[in-house]
Specification:
The protein has about 270 residues and is of the alpha/beta class. It folds into 2 domains: about 1-35, no CATH class; about 75-255, Rossmann fold, CATH 3.40.50. The chain has helices spanning about 1-10, 15-20, 30-35, 40-70, 85-90, 100-110, 125-130, 130-135, 150-155, 160-175, 190-200, 200-210, 235-255, and strands at about 75-85, 115-120, 140-145, 180, 215.
């Protein structure tokens, strides 16, 4: 009897369809009208929609934050140190080479840079000119030109060295890169005439192209045994550190200028 009563009181199916269609027993209709039941999945849809909106807003916030961060991030200046063994770092550990130490110094001073080591030991100005196009393939923002020591040691005519460096600097300037010319000086044992002709190369080219000149790459290092390797020609790590200390202000001024500085670079 109780089971019969339960069957009579219980609707055939309780759910949104039976409530909307009015298929439940009469005694249940006032309750259905009073509470106005919604479909069972309504709350899930509201929850999912809110969750989706939050995810979209979060994604937009992340993208905006990334865009703003990208806008204020300064891309490192790409610099090519182009020269001979003095640039390459002959005889010193890789981490002590001139380009590596120079990059570390500029980074420390607040200049984000990436300096590529384009030095080749034994290279003359002619060798540098021959590989210049390959060296410029990565489109550096600035190029440090350091050649002439091997020309001088081999007694190459200063006119030839001038011509090679002239063509080299001209092509670098044409590429849109800035230039810092690192000068070299000849010793007196080649004779006064040769010494004067060779030493005049670098100031003349700096004036012609209006690029900054660091007059003598080995300034303060040459002839000082404490700063050179046993061969007396190549700086040791202490010598490299001194060169970096003296060259870095020239490069920092170059990077801070809208165009290449003129004259000797001060």
């Amino acid at each position: 009897m109780l089971s019969d009563l339960g069957v009579r009181l219980m609707p055939r199916s309780i759910g949104p369809r039976s409530l909307r269609s009015g298929s439940i027993e009469k005694g249940w209709k006032p309750l259905a009208r009073r509470h106005r039941f919604r479909p069972y999945n309504h709350a899930a849809r509201v929850f999912n929609a809110t969750k989706t909106r939050r995810a979209v807003l979060l994604g937009i916030s992340i993208l905006l934050g990334a865009s703003l961060a990208a806008a204020v991030t300064v891309a490192p200046a790409r610099i090519l140190a182009f020269g001979d063994s003095l640039t390459a770092g002959y005889g010193v550990p890789p981490g002590e080479a001139f380009p590596v130490r120079l990059q570390a110094r500029l980074t420390q001073d607040g200049y984000p840079v990436q300096i590529a080591n384009g030095g080749v030991s034994g290279d003359t100005s002619a060798g540098g000119l021959a590989r210049l196009d390959w060296a410029l393939a990565d489109k550096p923002d600035a190029v440090l030109v350091e050649f002439g020591a091997n020309d001088m040691l081999r007694g190459i005519d200063p006119k030839v060295t001038y011509d090679n460096l002239d063509r080299m600097i001209g092509r670098i300037v044409q590429s849109g890169a800035k230039v810092l010319l690192l000068g070299m000086k000849a010793p007196s044992n080649w004779g006064r005439e040769y010494q004067q002709a060779f030493d005049a190369i670098f100031p003349a080219l700096a004036e012609k192209y209006h690029v900054p000149l660091y007059p003598f790459f080995l300034d303060g290092v040459a002839t000082d045994a404490a700063l050179n390797q046993p061969d007396g020609l190549h700086p040791n790590p202490k010598g490299v550190a001194l060169i970096v200390e003296r060259v870095s202000p020239y490069l920092e001024r170059l990077l801070g200028s809208g165009a290449a500085s003129s004259g000797s670079g001060g």
